[in-house]
Design goal:
Number of strands: 7
Region (Disordered): 672-694, 717-825
Domain PP4R3 EVH1-like: 5-101
Strand content: 5-15%
Oligomer: single chain
Domain Serine/threonine-protein phosphatase 4 regulatory subunit 3-like central: 142-633
Family: Belongs to the SMEK family.
Structural class: alpha+beta
Number of helices: 35
Radius of gyration: 44 Å
GO molecular function: protein phosphatase activator activity
């Protein structure tokens, strides 16, 4: 049975300062020959694999926390922790660590970090640097241990770097390497491997400049061939000197530039091939090496860019018909790599770089190259073109518009790109996908410029639809002349899918131009032929295209769809799909659901009138029944438009939250002059004793009662702002203003039936009274006929309201009274 005392979880601290669980295993301490010292080993309990192998360094600060945790730092940015299942196991390992470091196990931290750093600072101030052992064959092991022990501490790394620089130690080590190699001293070569690798991890630019110099770099690569973990040494130097060859497509006259190119290639090779993949301990320790390569590339691009003679010769040979194919292939590959190097430049320098290439005539040169038969040359030219489009699409657009004034459509640069896309021989159409992405960038209005004098969007899109769109759509039109695609193989369908996707993008972003093109060329009908394809991805592309058009809710498109019965292929595809629950099924249902939810009236009527019989049996979703209901509601409203207008009024005001706020329509209603309503014209026509009209009267009464309450509340508010003379308060037939009606204590009575206690004796007790007689009083508790009792809403804060003001307000209420009487007649 495994001892649970040694059962631990291994944790590492990530960049977000959070602990990541690396696994559970059992810890032990043992001497590891490779690490030359006592080490902590953790093997996974699941498969016995090694989770952790960490040498107990004498200068590393280990800390015990909470009796079951041991925490330490392996490198500057790499912290580790062991979490023990039992305290006894933690104490055992802690004693081993303290024994190696010569510390008392009773302490909770083996090294005082502050004291150590202070001591190192004093040492740093008092001594010029770290003292290195003599560079002798017998001391290589000592040097290797010194380098390894210095890496965890930033101050010791700094001292070691200064010592290596000041004493010219690297060159001495490389001399020893040549001696060891001549003597075939494997042990010494293995030590030199560890030393040179450790120097790389010091991350020091000054050391790199020595190591990567012309006289040292091959010996440095030689040291890194003898990895102790490999049974046989690598052959990196052999590859660099015999296999890898430097080609000067255009002779480089500057020796410094040539040397810089050689150096960059070799350092890149060291980074990618020679140095082992950095472990979690070392992943942040090679940043200076990346920077060294980066700045070398920047320098190379700058030196080539400044050499006008070189670039002039390059473009002259590229476009010269006498240049042989092999030479042209090398020239294009050089230009491609040149552009790839430019990606390392800062934005300002990259601007200058591409401006230089543009001035040298890179676009006309690409046009010539793309017209050649060599597939590899065309592929490299496409990569160069992609760099230009991604950097500055406006520059490319301006060039193609200018050349259209001089050349035929067949040899325009964009048409060459489209033709290469269509004729891509790759079964997976990798090149076509890349070219389609470039075309999308070029026709995207989001990256087009607009100035005071011209609009790039208008000019370029007019050019594109006039000169290029017919080339793009040619495969689609050629393949959709019948009810089914004439060619339905996988490669053709992939190409058509790419074309339809680009057309869908145009529908979304180009509106005017693409609308004219679709309607004039009947493009949608042709695209919908693809729904009959055996390849589902192509049928879905066609459905997406139509869905994008319907989503615009443009009546021009809708009339075009209805006139040509373009839902027919969609319905056919849906029915042919049967009961299968797949993407085609979902896409078609979603399209019809969109028409229903958005209430696209013209399309709803068209679908039901033409395709209802085919769709009425689909009951696993309610989409088609919902469409039928929408259609019937439309027909009902068309048959009775006045009924529709009243329903819209009720619908618009059903959910009013604040009775004191009136919308514009209500204001117009209540502000209408009384004379306008008393000229004999009824707001609602007299009842024809139809059942539908009688059914409506009850909600109308409720609605008008609420409007009356709103009016009365506003009347009280308005009366406070008017000056009323007390002498004008006496009106014939007026009741005492002390007879007030209060609705404040009854919860929402006016929306159903008014409370009888607050009604005037002459008013009806039910809101259905309009159906009992034409001249009966309106169903409101606040108002009677003109000249009779007028009651106001009695708010609690209006107790001291002046009676004269109430008398004056009664005049303001008579117009709504007449309106109400008219409604109820």
């Amino acid at each position: 049975m495994t001892d649970t005392r040694r059962r631990v979880k291994v944790y590492t601290l990530n960049e977000d300062r959070q602990w990541d669980d690396r696994g559970t295993g059992h810890v032990s301490s043992a001497y590891v020959e490779r690490l030359k010292g006592m080490s902590l080993l953790v093997r996974a309990e699941s498969d016995g694999s090694l989770l952790l192998e960490s040498k107990i360094n004498p200068n590393t600060a280990y800390q015990k926390q909470q009796d079951t945790l041991i925490v330490w730092s392996e490198a500057e940015n790499y912290d580790l922790a062991l979490s023990f299942q039992e305290k006894a196991g933690c104490d055992e390992i802690w004693e081993k660590i303290c024994q190696v470091q010569g510390k008392d196990p009773s302490v909770d931290i083996t090294q005082e970090l502050i004291d150590e750093s202070e001591e190192e600072r004093f040492d740093d101030m008092s001594s010029p640097g770290l003292e290195l052992p003599p560079c002798e064959l017998s001391r290589l092991e000592e040097v290797a241990e010194l380098v390894a022990s210095s890496l965890p501490s930033p101050l010791r790394r700094e001292k070691l770097s200064l010592a290596l620089e000041n004493e010219g130690y690297i060159r001495k080590l490389l001399e020893l390497f040549r001696v060891c190699e001549d003597l075939e001293n494997r042990e010494g070569l293995h030590h030199l491997y560890d030393i040179i690798k450790g120097i790389f991890l010091l991350n020091r630019t000054a050391l790199f400049e020595v190591m990567f110099s012309e006289e040292c770099i091959m010996d440095v690569i030689g040291c890194l061939e003898f990895d102790p973990s490999l049974p046989q040494p690598r052959r990196h130097r052999e590859f660099l000197t015999t296999t890898a060859r430097f080609k000067e497509v255009i002779p480089i006259s500057d020796p410094e530039l040539r040397q810089k190119i050689h150096q960059t290639y070799r350092v890149q090779y060291i980074q990618d091939m020679v140095l082992p993949t950095p472990s979690v301990f070392e992943e942040n320790m090679l940043s200076t090496l990346h920077s060294f390569i980066f700045f070398n590339k920047v320098e190379i691009v700058g030196m080539l860019q400044d050499d006008e003679k070189f670039l002039t010769e390059l473009f002259a040979q590229l476009t010269d018909e006498a240049t042989d194919d092999d030479k042209r292939h090398e020239l294009v590959n050089f230009l491609k790599e040149f552009c790839a190097f430019s990606q390392t430049l800062q934005p300002q320098n990259r601007d200058a770089f591409f401006k230089t290439l543009s001035n040298m005539g890179i676009l006309p040169a690409l046009e010539v190259i793309l017209g050649m038969d060599d597939v590899q040359v065309r592929g490299a030219a496409t990569d160069i073109f992609s760099y230009l489009v991604e950097y500055n699409p406006s520059m490319v657009r301006e060039f193609v518009m200018q050349e259209s004034q001089q050349n035929d459509d067949d040899i325009l640069l964009i048409n060459l790109i489209i033709e290469h896309m269509i004729c891509d021989t790759d079964p997976e159409l990798g090149g076509a996908v890349q070219l389609m992405g470039l075309l999308r960038t070029l026709v995207d209005p989001e990256n087009m410029l607009a100035t005071a004098n011209k609009t790039e969007k208008t000019e370029f899109l007019s050019f594109f639809y006039k000169h290029c769109m017919h080339v793009l759509s040619a495969p689609l039109l050629a393949n959709t002349t019948e009810e089914k695609p004439s060619k339905d193989d996988f490669q053709t369908c992939q190409l058509l899918a790419l074309i339809v996707e680009l057309l869908t993008f145009c529908v979304e972003h180009h509106t005017y131009h693409i609308k004219n093109y679709i309607i004039n060329k009947d493009i949608l009908r042709r695209v919908l032929v693809l729904t009959a394809s055996q390849h589902a991805f192509l049928a879905l592309c066609a459905l997406r295209f139509m869905r994008k058009i319907i989503g615009l809710k443009d009546e021009f498109y809708n009339r075009y769809i209805m006139r040509n019965f373009l839902f027919e292929p969609v319905v056919k595809a849906f029915l042919n799909n049967g009961s299968r629950y797949n993407l085609i099924n979902s896409a078609v249902i979603e399209m019809f659901e969109y028409v229903r939810v958005e209430d696209v009236k013209s399309l709803t009527a068209h679908i039901i009138e033409n395709y209802w019989k085919a769709l009425e049996d689909v009951d696993y979703v309610q989409t088609f029944k919902g469409l039928k209901l929408r259609y019937e509601q439309q027909r009902e409203r068309q048959d009775n438009p006045k009924l529709d207008s009243m329903r819209s009024i009720l619908r618009n005001h059903r959910f009013r939250r604040d009775a004191r706020t009136l919308e514009d329509e209500e204001e117009m209603w209540f502000n209408t002059d009384e004379e306008d309503l008393e000229d004999g014209e009824a707001v609602v026509p007299p009842s024809d004793k139809m059942k539908s009209d009688e059914d409506l009267m009850d909600p109308i009464s409720k609605f008008m009662e609420r409007k009356k309450r709103t009016l009365l509340q506003h009347a009280v508010k308005d009366s406070e702002e008017k000056e009323v003379l007390s002498g004008k308060a006496s009106l014939s037939g007026r009741q005492s203003p002390s007879f007030k009606l209060s609705f404040s204590s009854s919860p929402k009575p006016s929306l159903s039936s008014p409370p009888t206690a607050s009604l005037h004796p002459g008013s009806p007790g039910s809101p259905s009274s309009p159906g009992t007689g034409a001249r009966s009083s309106p169903p409101t508790a606040a108002v009677t006929t003109k000249g009779g009792l007028v009651g106001l809403v009695d708010y609690p804060d209006d107790d001291e309201e002046d009676e004269d003001e109430e008398d004056a307000d009664s005049k303001e209420e008579s117009p709504p009274l007449s309106k109400k009487s008219k409604l109820s007649s």
